[in-house]
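A reminder from the course coordinator: this example appears on the midterm review sheet, so study it carefully.

Given structure:
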């Protein structure tokens, strides 16, 4: 648990006066939140709400070098127009500027509280970087839209004893589960990766902003209670939310003694090499291709792509809008090819445009 460290200045107590008045928080609790180190994986629909609630609550605002508070926001994509109905940290200007979600979210939170120690990570969380991104935090929150990433996070958190709050929303339904040492883990609930197409996604079923806010608020509340050391954390049960009728149902989840992760300590997702396979991005008619390992020269790519369409160059990426599609090349070597769900078509587009 984070040690209590106070923020300096009178403005701090004024900012958090209503939180500190709560017997569940108090001045000591507020100091604990400030000293907490939290990673949020994914800054999309649920992730941007989680970041907003934790950041505004003062999580990760205590100074103190490597021991200070931290709010790390990890996301692999840029802000798109279709995100704005739900993702309240972002604006039309972020879409126009082709801003990575992690960076745009971090700036939005710094504008709310300049003392926040918020750290954007514009990257895909994979086995190769999971330890670096999640190994130094007190708690991990799930803002992703896919089970391979959730399983990876679950493996690392169970191995290290780091609390992890899973949440997900599709259509008008959501679910959340607190994973802590001694309790059930995500693989006690979902033992194996769901087969592609087996579950509805926000692509196929749609999603409603009010439901996203509701489920993310419940998950953020569990995270705050864990950081505060509360006895009221909802351990050992899945909360199932019907966000249309506004029902929240608790379904008991026993620890599975045969669970591959928490029972047999098989951290298969952590042992996999970085995603060598293309990923269809949920909520987006696009395919992400992993880095090829070739050095990335954004300036050279921008120059080369100018003949193909309209090029936008930022310090994180190059975007080209050709007559038939949109393609993003990130500084870490990833490529997102738009207007397709087909991996081989995405590869051939990359080969044609980038010569890889
Ligand atoms: Zn388990």
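Designed residues:
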């Amino acid at each position: 648990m984070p040690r209590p460290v106070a923020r300096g200045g009178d403005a701090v107590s004024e900012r958090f006066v209503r939180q500190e008045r709560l017997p569940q928080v108090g001045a000591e609790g507020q100091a604990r939140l400030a000293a907490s180190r939290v990673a949020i994986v994914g800054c999309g629909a649920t992730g941007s709400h989680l970041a907003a609630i934790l950041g505004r609550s003062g999580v990760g605002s205590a100074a103190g070098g490597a021991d200070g508070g931290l709010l790390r926001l990890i996301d692999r994509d840029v802000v798109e127009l279709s995100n704005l109905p739900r993702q309240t940290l972002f604006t039309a200007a972020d879409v126009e500027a082709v801003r990575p979600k992690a960076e745009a979210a971090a700036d939005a939170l710094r504008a709310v509280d300049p003392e926040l120690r918020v750290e954007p990570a514009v990257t895909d969380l994979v086995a190769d970087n999971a330890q670096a991104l999640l190994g130094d935090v007190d708690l991990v929150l799930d803002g992703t839209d896919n089970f391979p990433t959730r399983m990876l996070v679950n493996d690392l958190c169970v191995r290290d004893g780091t609390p992890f709050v899973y949440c997900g929303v599709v259509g008008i339904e959501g679910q959340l589960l607190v994973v802590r040492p001694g309790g059930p883990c995500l693989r006690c609930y979902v033992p194996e990766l769901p087969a592609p197409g087996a579950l509805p996604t926000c692509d196929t079923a749609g999603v409603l902003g009010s439901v996203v806010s509701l489920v993310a608020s419940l998950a953020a509340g569990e995270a705050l209670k864990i950081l505060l050391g509360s006895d009221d954390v909802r351990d050992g049960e899945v909360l199932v939310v019907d966000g249309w009728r506004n029902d929240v149902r608790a379904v008991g989840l026993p620890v599975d003694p045969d669970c591959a992760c928490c029972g047999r300590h098989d951290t298969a997702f952590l042992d996999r090499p970085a995603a060598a396979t293309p990923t269809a991005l949920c909520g987006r008619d696009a395919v992400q291709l992993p880095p090829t390992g070739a050095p990335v020269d954004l300036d050279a790519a921008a120059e080369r792509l100018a003949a193909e369409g309209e090029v936008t160059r930022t310090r994180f990426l190059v975007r080209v809008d050709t007559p038939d599609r949109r393609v993003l090349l990130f500084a870490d070597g990833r490529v997102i090819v738009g207007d397709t769900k087909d991996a081989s078509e995405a590869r051939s587009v990359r080969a044609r445009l980038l010569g890889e």
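The radius of gyration is 20 Å. The first strand starts at residue 37 and ends at 41.
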